[in-house]
Amino acid sequence: MRLVLLALLVAHSWYTGYHDPITGYECCDGKKDCGVISPRFVEPLPGGNFNVRTGSGLKSRYFIPKNRVIESEDSQYHICLSPPFSYIRCFFAPHTEARR
After folding, report:
1. Range of 27's domain?
2. Disulfide-capable partner of 50 in 1, 64, 80, 95 (CB 3.0 to 4.6 Å)?
3. Residue 71 has pLDDT above 90, yes or no
4. Total domain count, the chain
């Protein structure tokens, strides 16, 4: 169990220091507000933009313009949400998607 918790903390730590390129807000405030999002909830759009779903319903669909996309440190999509999980603080895309 400790190994799993340590892995989560280490995996989460790379978000620290990143800021939204447009708003300047810090992506992670250390409260486990960032995590991997399944590609099935991410729709790459022409021009490097994205549609992202964080749940069901209209309020859980977000348009992420290319100028807010940050390159992830791995090959996965990541999202940082502000409590109560209604505003996307940062969105990370894999290298190949982030540089479209």
Report:
1. 2-98
2. 64
3. yes
4. 1
Q: Is 13 helix (H, G, I), strand (E, B) or coil?
A: helix
Q: Is 49:64 a contact under the CB 8 Å cutoff?
A: yes
Identify the burial level of 46 via C-beta atoms within 10 angstroms of its C-beta, where 0-12 means exposed, 13-18 middle and 19 or more buried: exposed
pLDDT digits (tens, 9 = 90+) for 1-54: 333 333 334 445 678 888 999 989 888 876 667 888 899 999 999 999 999 987
* Torsion, Cα of 42, 87, 30, 33 (10° steps): -40
Comparing C-alpha atoms, which of 38, 20, 40, 21 is closest to residue 87? 20
Q: How far apart are the first and last CA of the chain?
A: 39
Q: What is the pTM of this model?
A: 0.78
> Rounded distance, CA 68 to CA 27, Å?
11
d(Cα 61, Cα 40) in Å, to the nearest integer? 13
Pairwise CA distance, residues 16 & 12, whole Å: 8
